[in-house]
């Protein structure tokens, strides 16, 4: 087996186990057994279980970020529609993660230091994406966003309820309506107003 194939085999096995049992109850020996390889082979690819968890968590967060970037594309309407679309996309992907297994959401939010590292990187990339869209919208005259960096952090704080763990606890039938109400509340505040 080639090295890339073995690495992928380990990651897929770990992903299955982590989805069922979570990071705290999955060991390197469990991953090796699931991947049908020796424990030493796992260590040839990854220095620790945390390295596996971090890589899988980064991949999950990257899927969320890619969906957000796609929603931010100019073809998706006005800057307001694109900004709302970013949060719609983020919410949809996070909810799909929660559907993958009892502990699948642990790869995007849990106390594991490896997940926290991946989550922190994601939060920074998310902030940059929102700030850039605010900056572009302000240049186009659609947004009143004199401090896009500060405003992006503030908007992300407002939408934190649509992030794990709050999102995963919210009744599914309420998510769409609550998200729409949040868009109305938050995004209307950044729209440029005609001078009086």
Low-confidence stretches: none
Query: Any guess at the CATH architecture of the largest domain?
Result: Orthogonal Bundle
Query: What percent of the residues sit in helical stretches (DSSP H or I)?
Result: 55-70%
- CATH names the topology of the largest domain as Tetracycline Repressor, domain 2
Task: Profile the largest sheet.
Answer: none
CATH level-four homologous superfamily name of the largest domain: Tetracycline Repressor, domain 2
- How many helices? The count is 9
Average pLDDT reading: 92
Radius of gyration, in Å, reads: 20 Å
Order of helices and strands: HHHHHHHHH
Number of strands: 0
Distance between the termini: 70 Å
Number of domains: 2
CATH class of the largest domain: Mainly Alpha
Proportion of residues in extended strands: under 5%
What is the 3D form?
Answer: elongated
Structural class of the secondary structure composition?
mainly alpha
Task: Describe, in plain words, how this protein is organized in 3D.
With 196 residues, the chain is an all-alpha fold. It has two domains: 1-47, Orthogonal Bundle (Arc Repressor Mutant, subunit A), CATH 1.10.10.60; 50-190, Tetracycline Repressor, domain 2 (Orthogonal Bundle), CATH 1.10.357.10. Helices cover 69% and strands 0% of the residues. It is built from nine helices and no strands. The mean pLDDT is 92.
Core attributes:
196 residues; mainly alpha; Arc Repressor Mutant, subunit A; Tetracycline Repressor, domain 2; 69% helix
